[in-house]
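Quick one: structure tokens for this chain, please?
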Amino acid sequence: MSSTPPPVVQPAHLPLTPDDPREIGGYRVHARLGSGGMGVVYLAHTPGGRPIALKVVREDFAADPEFRLRFAQEVASARRIHGLFTAQVVDAGADDAVPWLATTYVPGPSLQQVVERHGPLPAPTVLRLVAGIAEALQVIHGAGVIHRDLKPANVLVAEDGPRVIDFGIARAADATGLTGTGLRIGTAAYMAPEQALGHAVTPATDVFALGALAAYVAGGALPFGSGPESAALYRVVHEPADLSRVPAELRALVGHCLAKAPERRPTPAELIAAVRAHPAVGPSPDPGDLRLPEELRLPDERWPTATLDGRSPHDDPTRAAAPAVPVPTDRVMTPVPPRVPAPVPARVPPPAPPRGPGVRRGRPGKRRGRTALAAGGAAVLAGLVVAGVAYWPAADPDRGGGARPAAGYTPGYADAELTAPDDGYEFDLGAGKVAPAETADWYLARDKGGFVLPEDADAFVASGYVLGPADCERGLDAEPVTSLPFDELADERPFCVRAADGKRLVVARLVDGASGGGPVTLVLSQYRRNG
């Protein structure tokens, strides 16, 4: 009886829609494989009948000259990547009306789909996956490329090992203005701290993502928790990874990858060596032999389709994770207790004051002049919703952080989600509520294009996606701003406002903003500086 395992079943294909092309760059298009933030992925065939995955870029990206230039550069770099565990680039149309990229077709599901359908994978399989992906990263980094969006959805499982896809393509969009219109490059749960903060990325950034990927595949739970992306990004920067669901024999290896400081992470070569020496892999550490559980190979299995740079459904894993296992009190691997959202009753905004000449009453101080910049974002339903989930920074030896909550600050309200229906209301930052316009002393007022600050308050907008009170004060002292246009706050980029007394801060994120005076939703957390 043959010991060769049956092949992994090919993913299901979606039929073409009437709007889909039937031919791209001389390749016959037969089906859809998926779609995502950067475009659509098609199953196509070469003139000789060889299947390929053909990725067509979104039209709004295609219209951006900066993106097209960067895309051509990244494709040229990706063509130099020839690895056993990468999906080889075979052709591209960087200069076509709508740019496209063709890679070898991998007939297998993504790691994301495997975990969602089957649950966590056994330690020997995870170790072989780590070795295969690390080998792919060696080749990718050797070509001068950094993946920037390594995650389970971007690793396909073939019968002879993993295949890393979409390497380097994220960088083509990273430097364009389009990233501020609702598309974030990178996935919060797998971003390294330096990437979340908007700092330079290095090969070590991909190693951090590989550690987060391994933790998810081995434990069935994200190492920095699920929920809002903004909260996950904060935990990535300030809190240790929760590896309580990762098998004990993998925690040291995974935890090493998740070090906050890039220089403390292993290189891909060191990871491969660690896997080869690990007793759990047995006599055959070959990453091409994943030893997948038999239930992943059932002949009637039908897998969902893969996506191109799309959001993975990692926020809501469909399978229960393994039971929690006590974790050694190691610096990297101290578990974070699960957070339970505190129920907070919904509030109804007070009646708006009458509109019209002579009705708006005066107040001490003057409002700053209103901006005339265009607003961004989609309209939201009028009303007010308050969500009370606190995410305080943890002690962080890598960054010298203090105890939870942030050392030197006393927290007030946390993650209050407030909606101002129109510019007849303002955000009362002191009370954490929506109030009629011109009734609060410390406020954010509304304008068609952005927020209006009190004359005696100042603000700061972060360059990355994480902002704590200490970082806020440093930013206020170094780079204060006097206006907060909506288009600069898109994609939930955090900003903060300091009160006139110099002691109170509010860190905020714009969740939804509407032009023309429509509803605007903010998430606010308040802090008071001690002393």
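The chain has a mean pLDDT of 74.
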